[in-house]
Amino acid sequence: MRPRLIRGPLRNLEGGQPAATPLTELNRALGQDRAAPTGKPWGRWLGTGAFACVGAVLLGLLLVVALRRDPDGGQPIAIASIEKRAPASATEPTGASPTPAPASGPASASQLENNAGVTVVRAGEEAPGAIIITVPEEGGPIKLATAPDSRLTERTRYGLLPKTGPEGATPAKIYARPLGPEPSAKPVGRVAILVGGLGISQNGTAEAIARLPGQISLAFAPYGTELERVVQRARGDGHEVFLQLPMEPFDYPDNDPGPHTLLTGPKAQDNIDKLHWSLGRFTGYVGIVNFLGGRLTADQDALSPILREFAGRGLMVVDDGSSPRSLLASAASRAQIPALKIDRVIDGVTRADAIDKELAALELMAREQGIAVASASALPISIDRIARWAQTLEARKIALVPVSAARGFRNPGSTGSLRTTGALR
């Protein structure tokens, strides 16, 4: 094949344009023929100068700190003037010899609790080796220890049950209302009252908590609703509380105290389980008081295992005084359980004049014996007469004390009078 001669202008090998055609911005190779920058680099100089100034300042601060070496730098400084005074002995006569002040104060923690109205909490798990003393404020309301106290509770299928805590702490001591300071005028007698049957009637319970003075102790039956809330409200108002335990009376089952009643005879083997059910109904109680129970409290064999439970759980035992045959207080005392027997039942007859007569007799007993303890039911007439009577006691120099403190004013060898005005139950 013969070669052909191609005619036309020569092409530029890079851009494809004729060699004589000048390159434009679109077909010029990138980065070539760019105009050289003009002027001086002021921005770069300013940035470099700023960094140099900051560095100089930091370097100056480091030099000041390194050279000064002030160990108290930045610490607050206070200046106090010290005045020189003449010693106190310079003003005393030369012939006088100092006489040491006689020792005063309580000889023991128990005496401190009784005389000064304080609560002594012995060492616990959170503060080993410590003694915490809660002192009521001058002129202010007396406050009870918080319940439940984790040191004094045992978790069971029936709820939280009381138990003896470390270092001898017991519900009978910790949950009791402090006695409080002595009245300005020395009392001629002291009276303690335990009002029972609370927790069942909401209106009656609320009236008793609101109207009765905080020194009056309250006993709650295990059958009410929202017992924990109601009991803590009563304790918040200064009332120490007790648990009423249903016990078998002589005419059971015609006279039935209620479910989980503690019984005598063959059914007594179930008493501990029934007792645990009642003990778990609420917390913060100082001890127990019998509800009815004429037959059971007269049966030593039926009482013994129940008393062992009370002793192991650090509870106080109160005999409501309704049965002259009761062994409850005396048997508890022999078992080294703090126990007390009620002297009088003031509303055995539920009339205003009869209750007033019993209150007058209770006051006379307090003047003669120094301390008198009574029980009453949470009936509206009883609450009204007790509340009115309590307002007049200060003028007659009679002091109201909680039931837990009444035992301390009695003969240590006695659990109380066996006198009762109530019917046999």
Pick out its properties.
elongated, 9-stranded parallel sheet, disordered C terminus, 11 helices, 29% helix, alpha/beta, two-stranded antiparallel ribbon, 425 residues, TIM Barrel
Question: What does the secondary structure layout of this molecule look like, with pairings?
Answer:
Blueprint lengths: L41 H27 L40 H8 L2 E3 L10 E3 L18 E4 L2 E4 L8 H4 L14 E10 L3 H10 L5 E4 L6 H10 L4 E7 L23 H9 L5 E8 L7 H14 L2 E4 L8 H7 L4 E3 L2 E2 L6 H18 L1 E7 L2 H11 L7 E3 L2 H4 L19
Parallel strand pairs: 5-6, 5-12, 5-13, 6-7, 7-8, 8-9, 9-10, 11-12
Antiparallel strand pairs: 1-2, 3-4
Helix pairs in contact: 4-10, 9-10
Q: Under the CATH scheme, which architecture of the domain at 150-409 would be assigned?
A: Alpha-Beta Barrel
Strand percentage lies at 5-15%
Query: How are helices and strands ordered from N to C?
Result: HHEEEEHEHEHEHEHEHEEHEHEH
Low-confidence stretches: 8-20, 89-104, 122-132, 413-425
Q: What is the count of helical runs? A: 11
